[in-house]
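Minimal example, chain plus zinc ion.
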Amino acid sequence: MTSARSSLLVCTLAALTLAGCAEPAVELTPGLKAFVGARIIDGTGNMIEDGALIVRDGRVEAVGPSDSVSVPVSAEWIDLTGLTIMPGLINTHGHVGATRGLESNSDLYTRDNLLHQLGLYARYGVTTVFSLGGDDQAGFNLRNEQDLSLDRARLFVAGPVVVGDTPEEVEPIVDEVARMGADIVKIRVDDNLGSTTKMPEEAWRAVIRRAHEHGLRVAAHVFYLDDARKLVDAEVDFLAHSIRDTDVDQELIDKMVERNVCLSPTLMREVSTFVYESRPAFFDDPFFLRAADADVIAGLEDPERQARVQNSKSSQGYKAALEVAMRNVKALADGGVRLAFGTDTGPVGRFQGYFEQLELERMVEAGLTAAQAIMTATGDAAACMQVKDDLGTLAAGTWADFVVLSANPLDDILNTRSIESVWVAGNPVTSGN
Ligand SMILES: [Zn+2]
């Protein structure tokens, strides 16, 4: 990869000839880059063969076929002939900070740990993460520091999950989450397969009302179709998991389309609940191993732990729920509901970055085309999270957050793993921790 940092006098488009760089070299404009020759998947459903992507000061200045985009003579020229550019993946449901290795607690929610995890996401092609709950001040600080020098995944935060049994209990919590400056409010409406008490309807309705008074949207953890229906009726903005108890019906599909409510499938969340009952095949995947910690693998391979998962009623329950979730992903997509790519990564055994890659594969297994799966993670994710002017597509004005691949992911979704480089705000993401 060429870099403007090594020299400000390099060969530019204007000076390039078959014989090499003709004199005189042109002085480069700092922050101006031309990525030329790649196939460009732009995140809106369009694809350009032999494209040019011009980036100025972290944002896309122009994008189109090479022969129709004028490349400024002072741009740093980055030849990507034969490669594919796609927008960076947007994970609309992840978690950051509270896990390290096999440990999980709020003391781990430090700036260093967050930066480590946001770097990890980015190296796997995930350039934006919406952390849906468990976020503390260090996360809000990083959310506020997303400027031109960014070289890790962008972070948006929900703050603490709002819990409580009555409107009187939850309303002050919503006020506090709003005061902290959360991007979205998170609630959970679930009884965890009958093992816990569900948030009462009057309490979650009060959260939605109060959040909307603050101009904040609400994302709901959901499991049951019946709850999803009630939440959509109560004007919830986002369903943060698949419906997993039974097949969705036309009534829900129609309401979600009408009210423009998106759903994040998080299929890998289900997988994570049972996959460690034995040694998962991905433990041998070099793409996984490049970032995996040997102690974590050893911990998850522990026979006693495996036996606990095998004998866990909830693990086996969620294994069955995955089948329902996958059918519903297909039914919702066919019905025109907008899906927002999400994984629920972050907790122990839900590997940030790598699991996003597995989620894309699962969505295609569920019946989506590769193009549809990519849309959920790019333009549609951005639309669902109301950040589409800035993220999710490569169009004039959006942040230059993108992945360069050696193979076309529209041919095979597994090609999203053929990562050559990742760019955030036009900066290359490096391999450090
Ligand atoms: Zn979650």
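Residues 89-384 form a domain with the TIM Barrel fold (CATH 3.20.20.140). Confidence is low (pLDDT under 50) at residues 1-9.
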